[in-house]
Every structure is written in structure tokens, then in C-alpha cells.
Amino acid sequence: MSKVRDEYHFFCEQPRQMRVLLLTNLVYALVIPVIELFLGAYIIRKSNDISLVMVYQLAQGTGIPVTFIMNGYLLKRFHITTLYALGMIISGLDMGVMMLLPQLHFGGIALIGFIMGLSYGFFWANRVFLALTSTNDKNRNYYYGLETFFFTIASIIMPLLAGYFIAATQKLGWLGGHVRYAYHVLTGLVILLTVVASVIVHRGGFKNPVNARFIYFKFHRLWNKMLGLAALKGVAQGFIIAAPVMLIMRLVGEEGSIGSIQSSGALLSAVMLYFLGRKSAPEHRVKIFAAGLVLFLIGSIVNMTLYSALGAIIFVGCLVFARPLLDLAYFPIQLGVIECVATKEKRNQFAYIFNHEVGIYIGRLIGCLLFIIVSRKVSEQAALRYALFGVAAVQCLSIWVARSIMSDQEWCEASPRQPLDPQALKEPAEL
């Protein structure tokens, strides 16, 4: 208990804005696992067409960069916390709209996915900027370690509770035995949590970014490397978000299994990641990043070799550790590069946040289209078995790119830099 108190006091010593942002993300962390896991399961259950999940993911990925552009202009008129809260609330409402659709077809799934992408766009565009301005390079490992701890704990609690609630509704006759009513209850909980998170973030006293141009086409070579890393990450995202649900539903069984498998091992992962964020330094980020990619590759090899319930369980178990490790290393690298290049090129930091999302989207588009083409032209098994391994193998290139970025970033930080002059950035927001 004394160590717990020490960690609590260390948290209280952090800047207030950083603490408010962490508490906001703690509440919203309870929402994301429900949306990511059970919307995919709901689509498969109601349509029995696994490719519609990728249509949903592709539409969602398209909505995100569209919102980044909208967000850049809306920041001139609205406060950043208002747009951040809007993104969280839309995600809950969009889930509710899907539950009310009498039938799931291509057009409806694409529209719902696009709207969910809009919500994620508002959330991520403003979240990255708030994290950038609320932290510095020294405390970012701790920030993302603690945030990842929150999200990992949520990935234990929410899938377990929600999965068993859905399964028990059917088996024990709760809510008349209608599974759709269980989804309606979960949707109500999601909306409530998004409202609570929105209230918290308004207490942070955050400031809007400088009103300046944010769309550019030419960048420093260091940022071009960061875009390459973003594109590689996007390709994996196209598979990682949907693949666990597809494998579990096809090879293991039901939504209750999703909750159980996703939760197993996640507690150990959460504790490990918290202490990694607490104790690790910036020079450890590439090693942490490489560890996450190796775990992803191992899980995909086992899944490809066995392609069974056991293989799916091992793959999801590897993913439980791999995703947080990748996030813990990736986001501090991204923010450090943004600070460095924005100072060198004397541009608005939001310009790089927007451009980074374009790189992510290109990769995500490639990943989703690859899955849809393989599943439709070859077979669903080929997509979940062999294409998934191919994506994991290609991801290993990210280790070399990340090492090159860190090397260039050290050079960038060692060279003289002048602080940004906000007045110099105030120019018309033109293309």
C-alpha cells in the first residue's frame, strides 16, 4: 500500500492538464473495447457476412482524415475541448443508431462506419494535440504508460463483463433472452460514459492551437520517415482491429469467448506496461517497439500454422501484449518528431497531426482493401490465416524505420532551435 501511495503522489506531482487528460481517457477507455469488439461481433451475428466488418472498418478509416480537415477549420470557432467531447459522444450515439437498424446491408454499414470515423477523428485529432501540449519528452513514457495501463485494464473489465452479459442474456433468459436487448443496454452504458468523460475534459483549462495554415505537401526528411512508419502502422490497424473478432467468432464461438480471451493475460500486461512507462527512458523506445512487433509476428505464425481455436487464442493473447507495447513506444516517438520538425520548419504543430493521419489512412486503406480482396477472391480462411501473417512480417520493417527516426531525431534535437513565434504562424488557412 505504501508503494501504491507513492505512485499516487507521483501522479499528483504531474502537471494539472496532464492529470485531467489522463482521467478523461480513463473514463473513455471503458468505452473503446465495447465499440471495437462488440460492434464487429454484432455485424457478424446479424448479417453473417464477415467482409462487412472490413467494409465498416474501411468506412470508419475514411471518416477519420475527413474529420481531421474539418477539425482544423472548426478550431477557429470552437474550443478544442468541445470538439474533443463531441467526438466521444458521437461514438456512443453512432453505436445506438446501428442497434436500431432493422437490417444490416452494405450502404448502412458504410454510413455507420463513416460516422464512427468522424467521431474518432474529432477524438484523435484533439487528443494528440492535447497530449503534445500537456506533456514533454521526459514524462511522455510515464504518460503513455499510465494511459496504456488504463486502456489495458479496461480491455480486461469491459470485454469480460460485456461478453458474459451478452452470453447470459441468451442462456439464462435475461431481458427475455433477446441478445439485441443486451446490445441496447451496452449502448446506453457507452453513451453515459462518453458524457462523463466530456464533463471531465472541460475542467482542464486547455488552449486551442495557433490559428494557422495546416495543410502542406512538402516536409522535412525526418517527417517523411515518420509518415512511412505511420503507413506501416495503418496497414496493421486494418487487420488488428477486426481480426481478433473474426477469428474468435469463426474458430472459437461466441461473444462471451471474446471477453474471456481478450481479458486473459491483460492484467499482467497492464502492470508490466505501467512500470515500463514509469522506469523507461526515451532511448528504450525502439526496443519496446521491436518487442511489440515480434509478439505480433509470433502470434500470426502460430495462427497460420494451427488455424484453430487454440491458434486464435494464442494470437489474441500475443496481441494483448503487443498492441500496448507498440502504442507505448510509437506515440512518444511521434510527438517528439512533431516538436522537432515543427520548430525546424516553423509550422503549426496541428499540420503534422493532420498529415500523420493521412499517412495512417493510406496504410489502413491498403490493409482493409487487401483483406476484402483476399477474402472475396480467394477465401476468408486465406485472409485470416496467410494475409494476416504477411502483414505481420511486413511490420518488422517498422523496426528499421523507427531506429532511423530516433537517430535523426537525436541530430535534430542536438542542433540549435529557436522557439516558435505564434505571431509568425498566423497566416490564412489556405492549401
Summed up:
By secondary structure, the protein is mostly helical.
Sum up the structure in keywords.
single chain, 431 residues, mainly alpha, Growth Hormone, Chain: A, disordered C terminus, MFS, MFS_trans_sf, transmembrane, transmembrane helix, MFS transporter
Named at the architecture level, the CATH assignment is Up-down Bundle
Query: So, the CATH homologous superfamily?
Result: MFS general substrate transporter like domains
Q: DSSP strand (E) fraction?
A: under 5%
Indicate the overall shape.
Answer: globular
Tell me the number of strands: 0
> CA-to-CA gap between the ends?
55 Å
Tell me, what is the CATH class? Answer: Mainly Alpha
Pfam families: MFS_1 (PF07690)
Keywords: Membrane, Transmembrane, Transmembrane helix
Protein name: MFS transporter
Transmembrane segments: 20-44, 50-70, 82-101, 107-130, 142-166, 181-206, 227-252, 258-277, 289-322, 358-374, 386-406
Explain this structure to me?
By secondary structure, the protein is mainly alpha-helical. It has one domain: MFS general substrate transporter like domains (Growth Hormone, Chain: A, Up-down Bundle), CATH 1.20.1250. Helix content is 81%, strand content 0%. Helix 9 packs across helix 15 and helix 10 packs antiparallel against helix 14. The longest helix is centred in the C-terminal third of the chain and has 37 residues. The radius of gyration is 21 Å and the shape is globular. The C terminus is likely disordered. Keywords: Membrane, Transmembrane, Transmembrane helix. This is MFS transporter. It holds the Pfam family MFS_1.
